[in-house]
Amino acid sequence: MGSFGHYLATHFDTLKAEFWYLFVGGVANGLLYAMVAVGYTLVYGVLRLINFAHSEIFMSGGFAGYFVLRAMVGSTVPAGFMSVLIIVLGIAAAGTAGAAAATLVERVAYRPLRRRRAPQLAYLISAIGASYFLFNLAGKEFGHLSVGDPQPYINHTVFTIFGAPVLMYDLIILVVSVVMFVALDWLVGRTRLGRGIRSVAQDAETASLMGVNIDRTIAITFIVGGALGGVAGFLYGLNIGVVYNMGFVPALKAFTAAVLGGIGNLRGAVLGGLLLGIVENLCVVFVQAAYIDVVAFGILVLVLLVRPTGILGERLGRTA
Amino acid sequence: MLEVSDAVVRYGAITALHGISFEVNEGEIVTLLGANGAGKSTTLRMVSGLQAPVSGSITFQGRDISHTRAHDFAKLGVSHVPEGRRIFPQMSVEENLEMGAFRRRGSIGEDLERIYETFPILKERRKQLGSNLSGGEQQMLAIGRALMSQPTLLLLDEPSMGLAPMIVDTIFRIIGEIRAAGTTVLLVEQNAAHALRLADRGYVLENGRIALSGPAAELLVDPRVRAVYLGEDVEAGA
Q: Max Cα separation, chain A?
């Protein structure tokens, strides 16, 4: 017991010393998880289906962004306006690629099943099939080795919080994700399109009686979720690089985040993503870094056992 | 206005409607009566495109609509108040009403005011969530929501279900007013006495077939209708 107490004491000292440093990294990771998690939750909301091919939508965005960077970044690291321009173009390409991949998955893997009123299990198998197809295709086309993204900006410390440096990379993630979350919240909560999405999530048949085109609404939902997932893939690739199976672990964690926040609830997905990112990063103090994924998926199992509706519960309808 | 001829509807291997024919003329209130499972709701679902007939035809204002999809009906002027009201539970009263006008362009403020005049309680509760309304309020909201699309034909599925008698009276009075304002009504009801007193004509469905039809006043005194739907014991000479 004494040695365990000692273990805790020393580790809590480390936690105190490293807290803000780990917190900043955790927030950055968490925002990326959140951007992917909202894609799961949006699709779940309208189809009651976990889109397990979402990891490949993430990967598509990663590669689209990578190609933009490769074409635009020269031998020296760009700065100032040029950096902003390249990043904006990368985001646009990644968002488009993510939306396109999501649309493809919806058309090919899900819509035909919907026409046939297939059981839920068929969707799950179809999703996993689409996922394997896409990442193997990427592996064949782009190779199986990870490639680093050319750096479109100088990753210096922009400012510090309680001594912890906030890098340009963290700041980019923060700005891009917050802009997208605010836009998404407005889209779903305040526009006619969003009202259509919420009505389908709450009662699809009655929505169709109101004149909502269910197929179109589902397609748009995939596009919106796919765009966010694609952009997340690009931002992730900026730091880690891209590879054909890059989506697997981050997307599973984002799924965990979506479940943690309450699948079907958009604000829950953001909250779940942030929490997971932060908790996971702080855990580094207590366990070896190699155990990080164990902690993350341990959280998934725990949530499913203790509170399967997540922190905020399922409510795409209300707050969106 | 609405003409259904020889329509057959199947759910998988089960035939729900075995070739039914009926019509609704402009300005009428027509009621469909029948026991549970007779095919009343299926008939309405077919007329509003939720369940396509496998054979037979449905024409509305001279147009074949048997294969029009549900979401295009709002545009045609057909509005369906579904069984069980089906209010959007996580939307406010006002948002539910706005959903009714989903396919309309332009301002809906005037219609919203008119609905609030008809159902003052909805105005009081405009910010509340649909799920927090009582059964009667939900029914009013479902009717109000359907009216927001400015329908020429209103389909009502069991508007009195589960409501207190006083509220049922209110709902039926309002259905009369809706017709007086120029909307044709096709009404499915379990409450046969009430429905027949309000309607111009009626059809009685039995096991997916039309067993009886005629002017409401005649059906109201028909011994078969009285025995089965009005709960009178004919053999005992009541």
A: 68
What pLDDT is stored for residue A143 in this prediction?
Answer: 94
What CA–CA distance (Å, rounded) separates A234 from B130? Answer: 41
Calculate Rg over the CA atoms of chain A.
20
From chain A, pick out residues whose CB is under 8 angstroms from the CB of B74.
209-211
If you count them, how many residues does chain A have? 320
Q: Closest Cα partner for A151 from A168, A174, A173, A176?
A: A168
Q: How far apart are CA B128 and CA B109, in angstroms?
A: 19
What's the confidence (pLDDT) of residue B232? Answer: 57
List b or e across B178-192, with b for residues whose CB sees 16 or more CB atoms inside 10 angstroms. Answer: bbeeebbbbbbbebb
What is the C-alpha to C-alpha distance for residues A135 and B179, in angstroms, rounded to an integer? 60
Structural domains of chain B, ranges and CATH numbers in brackets: 2-228 (3.40.50.300)
Residue B54 distance to chain A (closest CA, Å) = 16
Partners of residue B69 in chain A, C-beta under 8 Å:
208
- pTM assigned to the model: 0.91
Residue B186, phi then psi, degrees to nearest 5 = -115, 115
Per DSSP, the residues of B93-146 read HHHHHHHHTTT--S--HHHHHHHHHH-HHHHHTTTSBGGGS-HHHHHHHHHHHH
Residues comprising chain B, all counted: 238
CA distance B91 to B138: 12
Q: B85 near B139, Cβ under 8 Å?
A: yes
C-alpha A80/C-alpha A84 separation (Å) is: 7
The partner residue sitting opposite A211, judged by closest CB among B50, B86, B102, is B102
Residue with tokens 């009505």: A199
Residue with tokens 């802009």: A179
Are the C-beta atoms of residues A20 and A164 closer than 8 Å to each other?
A: yes
Q: How far apart are CA A87 and CA A235, in angstroms?
A: 9
Q: Looking at residues A242-267, what average pLDDT do you find?
A: 94
Is A213 close to B88, i.e. CB distance below 8 A? no
Q: Look at residue B136 and tell me whether its pLDDT is greater than 90.
A: yes
Q: What is the pLDDT of residues B11-65, one digit of tens each?
A: 988 999 999 999 999 999 999 998 888 999 999 999 999 999 999 999 999 999 9
Given a contact cutoff of 8 angstroms between Cβ atoms, the answer to whether B186 and B156 are in contact is yes
Q: Could A199 and B69 be called an inter-chain contact, meaning their C-beta atoms sit closer than 8 Å? A: no
Listed by start position, the domains of chain A span: 30-149+158-247
Q: Residue A264 in contact with residue A20, Cβ under 8 Å?
A: no
Residue B116: both structure tokens together: 């609030």
What is the ipTM metric for this complex? 0.91
Q: What is the three-state SS of B37-57?
A: CCCHHHHHHHHCCCCCCCEEE
- pLDDT digits 0-9 by tens, A10-59: 888 888 888 999 999 999 999 999 999 999 999 999 998 999 999 999 99
Q: Is B15 left (phi over 0), alpha (psi -120 to 50) or beta?
A: beta
